[in-house]
Amino acid sequence: GVKDDSFHVLDLAEYTKNRPWWRKVFAPSSGSSAEKYNVATQLLIGGVTGWCTGFIFQKVGKLAATAVGGGFFLLQIANHTGYIKVDWKLVERDVNKAKQQLKFHSSGNKMSPEVKSKVDEVIIFLKKNVILTGGFAGGFLLGMAS
């Protein structure tokens, strides 16, 4: 068999002309969700997505804590039984060096322009979508608790 390497190209401009719902949802001038949905819908969307995120975050957090704690426990057992030897002076020196670097970087309190612009975008989004964000925060906390 001869392999056919032809591709179908989707022109989004033409696609959206025939679908008004696409323009309503994804148009750049569509505004914030506060303008598109009523308060109950925003709370429901925010709450459901927040709960799902919180639930997953809780499960992954427990798994990560178990892995880190278990790994540390196994290292301690291996150290005490003589399988490995830990140079604690080297560990202490590296930790102190890391602390000094953290103090040096945090003393400047200057963000790069890229980070500052992203933070500004997030703040603008949060201000425009207060109800959605509140629903998400509440759902996230409920997800973490369940």
Automatic annotation (TrEMBL):
**What is this entry's stated membrane topology?**
Multi-pass membrane protein
GO cellular component term, pick one: nucleus
Keywords attached to this Swiss-Prot or TrEMBL record, sorted alphabetically, are: Membrane, Mitochondrion, Mitochondrion outer membrane, Nucleus, Phosphoprotein, Transcription, Transcription regulation, Transmembrane, Transmembrane helix
**Biological-process GO terms, alphabetical:** autophagy of mitochondrion
Q: Does the keyword RNA-binding apply?
A: no
- A Pfam family: FUN14
Give yes or no: UniProt keyword Kinase: no
This chain's function reads: Binds directly and specifically 1,2-Diacyl-sn-glycero-3-phospho-(1'-myo-inositol-3',4',5'-bisphosphate) (PIP3) leading to the recruitment of PIP3 to mitochondria and may play a role in the regulation of the platelet activation via AKT/GSK3B/cGMP signaling pathways. May act as transcription factor that regulates SREBP1 (isoform SREBP-1C) expression in order to modulate triglyceride (TG) homeostasis in hepatocytes.
UniProt lists the family membership as follows: Belongs to the FUN14 family.
Name the record gives this protein: FUN14 domain-containing protein 2
Q: Which organism is it from?
A: Thinocorus orbignyianus
